[in-house]
Specification:
Elements lengths: L14 H10 L7 E2 H7 L6 H10 L11 E2 L12 H12 L4 E2 L2 E2 L1 H4 L1 H10 L4
Parallel strand pairs: 1-2
Antiparallel strand pairs: 3-4
The structure holds a DNA duplex (13 and 13 nucleotides).
Length: about 120
Amino acid sequence: MNSDTQAGKTDDGNWYHKVWKVVSEIPSGHVLTYGEVARLSGMPRAARRVSQALRRAPRSMDLPWHRVINAQGKISFAEDSNPWQKQKDKLEAEGVVFLNGKIDLDFFGYRGAVDRLLWGDDL
DNA sequence: GGGCTGACCTACT
DNA sequence: CAGTAGGCCAGCC
């Protein structure tokens, strides 16, 4: 017996930890989109959940939340907002360059990193 | 239990 | 390139 009534277990709240883990694994000078973080966390359609997780992430864990941006290569905060400026400042401090208010995902994104390893720096 | 919200994404026009 | 529409799903009231 024993029931596996509780067979499910896991998740339930644990999915934040997965997101936090992935985000904490982002190397300096690189950025990931919400969708990619979600995918790497095992939840392809959970881009929105990622944002929620980042918001709930405690500051004590020192999570590099600023390395997570949207698929447009832009910061998801309002441009006239304080957090927007803060995130941009942090990214620039790590070597990320903003072009016209947007980040070149072909160079700083996950895919860009792989492509550079395969094709070289002459993208 | 039902409905609204949201640091979003993709596809189409 | 910009704007619109539909989708997705966990949290909160």
